[in-house]
Write a structure and sequence with these properties.
The protein has 247 residues and is α/β, with parallel strands linked by helices. It has helices at residues 12-23, 57-66, 80-89, 104-116, 139-154, 217-226; strands spanning 2-7, 27-33, 47-50, 70-73, 95-98, 122-129, 174-176, 179-185, 191-199, 202-210, 232-235.
Length: 247
């Protein structure tokens, strides 16, 4: 039996995680911690799931790893600097899994996008999330852009063509590793991403749509069950799913 604590347990993702852990026969929920609760309530846990916010997650990690707990993180904003900081916090035997997205379909769509990237002249990403999401672009979109850019570079593809010379209002979106990313924030949306490839005469769209947050729970449970057997830092669910990709 794996004993689990959830940080951010009162939020939308956190409450889903609490329900999923409670329903799993091989897991025991020992703490459901909201923003007003003491983080010391993790004391009985083997694995801590952090579903809080980018502005508090690093402090949480410092405390939780300092207490000798494995951690599963589902918070956006993990760039190379933050990942390096996590590695500095780790001690031998502890595992951390940081997942830009826990949706198995979303991870597969990123994998498919990387496979397609070398074969098309151009690519752009359109991502949509709910109106309360605090960061843009999403962690999934940023991760997808990086994977696509790496695959293009490995294949010898040059820069994505773009003849824009005037864009005072930022209509072309953000540029992540040379890939344009457009972010939409609307009520009624959970998470949606389209990766659109273009070549003369054709386009290919790889689309993923999370209808509700329950779709993320199989990935959360997979990470909880795997983290103790993966000491060090694992970035993304790809290695847990047997997909090629950086760990």
């Amino acid at each position: 039996m794996i004993r689990v604590a959830v940080l951010g347990a009162k939020g939308r993702m956190g409450s889903e995680a609490v329900a999923a852990v409670t329903a799993a026969e091989d897991l025991e929920l020992v703490a459901a911690i909201g923003s007003a609760d003491p983080i010391s309530d993790i004391a009985a846990a083997d694995v801590v799931v952090d579903l809080t916010r980018p502005d508090v997650v690093m402090d949480n990690l410092a405390y939780v790893l300092g207490q000798g707990k494995h951690v599963v993180v589902g918070v956006s904003g993990f760039d190379e600097a933050r990942l390096a900081a996590v590695r500095e916090l780790l001690t031998p035997g502890l595992g951390v899994i940081v997942a830009p997205n826990f949706g198995v379909g979303a991870v597969l769509s990123m994998h498919f996008a990387r496979l397609a990237a070398p074969f098309f002249e151009s690519v752009e990403i359109v991502e949509a999330h709910h109106e309360n999401k605090v960061d843009a672009p999403s962690g999934t979109a940023a991760r997808t852009a990086t994977l696509v850019a790496e695959a293009r570079a490995k294949a010898g593809r040059g820069a994505v063509p773009d003849a824009t010379t005037s864009d005072p209002d930022g209509a072309r979106g953000a540029s992540v590793d040379g890939v344009h990313v457009h972010s939409v924030r609307l009520p009624g949306v959970v998470a949606k991403q389209d990766v659109i490839f273009g070549d003369p005469g054709e386009t290919l769209t790889i689309a993923h749509n999370s209808i509700n947050r329950a779709s993320f729970m199989p990935g959360v449970l997979l990470a909880i069950r795997a983290v103790a057997s993966r000491p060090g830092l694992t970035f993304g669910l790809e290695p847990l799913l047997g997909l090629e990709g950086p760990a």
